[in-house]
Amino acid sequence: MYKSAQTFLAAPPTTVVAAPLETPQPYSFGYVSNDIEGSHGHEETGDGTGRVSGRYSLSLGDGRTRVVTYVADEFGYRADVVTNEPGTESRPAADTTFTSSALSGPDAAAAYESTRLGGLVLGGRA
Prior knowledge:
Blueprint (H helix, E strand, L loop, with lengths): L26 E9 L2 E9 L5 E9 L4 E9 L2 E8 L12 E5 L4 H12 L10
Parallel strand pairs: 5-6
Antiparallel strand pairs: 1-2, 2-3, 3-4, 4-5
């Protein structure tokens, strides 16, 4: 018993035509959203030459805040971060400046642990 060979046909070649790139146009947008848990917002502008700058912010009901101001242009992306979030320290990475009013790592951990345990310390006494 012989089986006949299967025949496969290739699809005909296709032509892909790339759409022409459009010239960047200046733009601007912004929003703010508020609710019972806090607020956040973002605003940004582009000048039509590739330079973009903006700012976004977060403010939570428990008092934590973060504001990021940024620029992206021919020199890259650069951000300035200001926050009071626990566990952050003022140590920049790359071209980012980072300013924090939060406790340092060990102090933040101790503060969190005492809150988590309801004021108890090792040995079971406050």
